[in-house]
């Protein structure tokens, strides 16, 4: 990748400077943006469907992935077409420039809606999690509430795995004495998904079903997804147990008169073992809670400033707008870094 630095001293006002920067970035980044958009909308979903497919043949897996994504793209294009037709019938458009402006406005609206919907995950959840983690009692209540949900998810995943394993075991009994590809496929599934032995459903697993390639591919996909779901639930449950043990050790040590933490259900970690018991007590029970509260307040203030910067675009007289203040502070002397990859 080659890069060039362009130094310019001009008398443009900050508003023109911002427009110049946006125009240059729009021109230089249009191709990477289009490539990224095509990856997210077309290539990555096809690769994901190809990986999730239960077919054994690469050709059948590719055809299944293309069929699933074509159905999705047809639904999206149909909704977009109906919405565009409604807008064209209700909005007066006299030229192609008006139509182009309408498409740009729709694109910006779509981006703003995504930003608003996704903004809460970072700007709200991060300060809230930090504030909750600063109190032992509050975090213990949260972890106990999360433990109920984690246990139910783990139990549901185990039941689903047992149900699919029983279904595979039923087909294995049906295929005894057969030596065709479908019977070999069923035996491979039986080896990968052993039957736990307990009958989950009294109804026979093979009742009213025909064993063919489409059914076996769907069964393989369901077995794989249920196995991944069980692994995820078990990992989350183990994390809940470790976190709960850590919090209960801190809680019991805070309620005693001693100046040390008695690690019974957890450990201080590799770094924590280096420090003596008194330093561990001061850090985990005195310093760390106030540090988390300070970080929570700081991230909350930053979140408010970011939201305000998105709402206010006054470059001449910015009010608590980080983008406006930075552009306003550049004045007449400004630097522009232009990066041009060789493949553009």
Q: What helical percentage do the residues reach?
A: over 70%
- List SSEs in N-to-C order: EHHHHHHHHHHHE
Uncertain spans? 1-35, 199-204, 334-344
Rounded mean pLDDT score: 76
The radius of gyration is 29 Å
Say how many strands there are. 2
Q: How does the major sheet shape up?
A: 2 strands, antiparallel
Percentage of β-strand residues: under 5%
Strand order of the largest sheet: 1-2
End-to-end span in angstroms? 10 Å
Coarse morphology? flat
List strands and helices in order, with pairings.
Elements: E1 2-9, H1 14-28, H2 30-52, H3 58-90, H4 96-123, H5 125-133, H6 136-174, H7 181-192, H8 213-255, H9 269-272, H10 277-311, H11 322-330, E2 333-340
Antiparallel strand pairs: 1-2
Helix pairs in contact: 2-3, 5-10, 6-7, 6-8, 7-8
Summarize the structure.
The chain has 344 residues and is mainly α. It is 73% helix and 5% strand.
Task: Describe the model.
Mean pLDDT is 76; it is low at 1-35, 199-204 and 334-344. With 344 residues, the protein is mostly helical. It has a two-stranded antiparallel sheet with strand order 1-2. It is built from eleven helices and two strands, in the order βαααααααααααβ. It has helices at residues 14-28, 30-52, 58-90, 96-123, 125-133, 136-174, 181-192, 213-255, 269-272, 277-311, 322-330, and strands at residues 2-9, 333-340. The chain is flat and about 70 Å long.
Provide the descriptors you would attach to this structure in a database record.
single chain; 344 residues; mainly alpha; two-stranded antiparallel ribbon; 11 helices; 2 strands; 73% helix; flat; disordered N terminus; disordered C terminus
């Amino acid at each position: 990748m080659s890069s060039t630095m362009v130094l310019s001293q001009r008398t443009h006002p900050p508003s023109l400077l911002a427009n110049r920067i946006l125009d240059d970035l729009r021109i230089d980044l249009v191709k990477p943006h289009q490539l990224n958009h095509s990856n997210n909308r077309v290539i990555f979903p096809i690769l994901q469907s190809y990986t999730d497919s239960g077919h054994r043949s690469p050709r059948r897996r590719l055809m299944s992935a293309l069929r699933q994504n074509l159905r999705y793209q047809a639904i999206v294009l149909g909704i977009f077409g109906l919405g565009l037709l409604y807008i064209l019938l209700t909005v007066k458009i006299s030229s192609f420039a008006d139509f182009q402006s309408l498409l740009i406005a729709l694109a910006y609206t779509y981006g703003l809606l995504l930003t608003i919907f996704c903004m809460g995950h970072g700007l709200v959840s991060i300060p809230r999690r930090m504030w909750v983690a600063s109190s032992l009692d509050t975090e213990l209540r949260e972890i106990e509430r999360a433990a109920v949900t984690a246990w139910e998810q783990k139990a549901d995943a185990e039941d689903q795995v047992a149900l699919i394993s029983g279904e595979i075991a039923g087909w294995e009994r049906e295929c005894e004495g057969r030596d065709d590809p479908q019977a070999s496929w069923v035996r491979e599934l039986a080896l990968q998904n052993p039957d736990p032995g307990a009958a989950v459903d009294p109804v026979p697993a093979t009742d009213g079903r025909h064993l063919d390639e489409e059914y076996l591919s769907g069964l393989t996909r369901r077995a794989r997804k249920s196995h991944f779901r069980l692994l995820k639930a078990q990992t989350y449950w183990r994390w809940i147990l470790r976190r709960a043990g850590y919090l209960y050790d801190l809680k019991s040590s805070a309620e005693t008169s001693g100046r040390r933490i008695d690690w019974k259900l957890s450990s201080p970690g590799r770094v924590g073992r280096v420090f003596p018991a008194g330093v561990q007590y001061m850090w985990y029970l005195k310093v760390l809670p106030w540090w988390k509260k300070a970080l929570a307040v700081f991230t909350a203030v930053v979140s408010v400033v970011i939201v305000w910067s998105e709402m206010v675009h006054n470059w001449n007289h910015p009010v608590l707008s980080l983008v406006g203040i930075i552009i306003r502070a550049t004045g007449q002397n400004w630097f522009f870094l232009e990066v041009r990859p060789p493949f553009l």
